[in-house]
Amino acid sequence: MKAVGIVVEYNPFHNGHLYHATSAKDQTDSDLVIAVMSGNFLQRGEPALIDKWTRTEMALENGVDLVFELPYERATSNAPSFAAGAIQLLDAAGCSSFCFGSENGTIAPFTETLSRITSVRSEYDNLIRESVQQGMSYPKALNRAYSTLIRTTKAEHETVDLSLPNNILGFHYMEAAKEIGTSMEPATLPRLGAGYHDDVVHDTPIASATGIRKEFFERRSTEHIQQFVPDSVYRSLNEWLTKRKSFGSWEGFYPILRLQILRDGPERLSTIADVTEGIENLLYKAAKQSDTFQQFMGVVKSKRYTWTRIQRMLTHIYTGFTYRNRASMQAPDHLRLLGMTSIGQAYLKERKEELKLPVVSRLANFDSPSANFSSSVSDLYAFGIDPIHPALGLDYRIPPIRKG
């Protein structure tokens, strides 16, 4: 059986994701779709709208056959580390190809760009490093290096625009694949409809996940997002609200985060991953004077520290993820199975002896720093969703979800 791999967050699953899953399978002539999905905290440094189990169910009902979890340390990392972890897992799962959405929509410019950057790798990396040290955000530093070294020289073939968010991530997938020497063939699909950060437009069925979340939190109702998600997803979102009353957000998690910052103080905060340059003092000061998350971010955000960079720090503070934790978790060491269809189950049975990493169905059967930390993160997420009656120990109690 031939599998195509995709990297997802599904926060929440929407019609654009459905197009991605089904089109990736068709474009690569694959028998099934394998998704590597972030867990309960995401790459932009925020809690997921709904937990990984519910998002897994949404995926399996809408074109995905196997869902593996991207470990916390990769799911909440910067773009290169996020992409590297995901590609390593897709390769370990035996995918013949991987497919990502991009603003560009064709693979040749990515291949050309990667080839040209590789030829000036040292100079390119140094320019990015210098820009970041000067206070520039990583995406801007990347685009500056690209514009200086690549865009300004004559290209024999078209190169990709690395100022656009999905193109940037796609480039890092390609870079990671080259780094590990995978046999997976790359493919890309054009991103449809709304841009990554666009608000929803109600005369189209496609909206970005960012726009959908914003629409919900502004209107406090799922009714206005129904047209942008498959029917099964809409039902799941409403069932979630019926049981838990709220979706995951920093506004909801902030009271616990604030307590942790005030309890730990600057000295402890300085040991947390991504907390650098004395910002722990500002974080502590902001927590003392800010009653809401928006107030807190208003105190902390600056040109030097982007919203996303700060949120990643806060995610690590919330979960207690230290520099020492990160050092103990290098390359992914297992395939954490969250769910499968009957086709996905057949694939695992067929490929069992060929997979490069062990498939872990329940964490009770596997011991590693990465797996153990993921379990604690799930419990902390549950406290943020419902501090009174948190659903604890799900990583040890819930078996892989089965559909179809």
Automatic annotation (TrEMBL):
Enzyme class, broadest EC rank: ligase
Domain of life: Bacteria
Main location: cytoplasm
Cited Pfam families: HIGH_NTase1
Enzyme Commission designation: 6.3.4.-
Keywords: ATP-binding, Cytoplasm, Ligase, Nucleotide-binding, RNA-binding, tRNA processing, tRNA-binding
Annotated catalysed reactions: cytidine(34) in elongator tRNA(Met) + acetate + ATP = N(4)-acetylcytidine(34) in elongator tRNA(Met) + AMP + diphosphate
Record-listed ATP binding positions: 7-20, 101, 166, 191
Compartments, record wording: Cytoplasm
Family: Belongs to the TmcAL family.
HAMAP family listed in its UniProt record: TmcAL
Protein name: tRNA(Met) cytidine acetate ligase
Taxonomic source organism: Sporosarcina gallistercoris
Gene: tmcAL
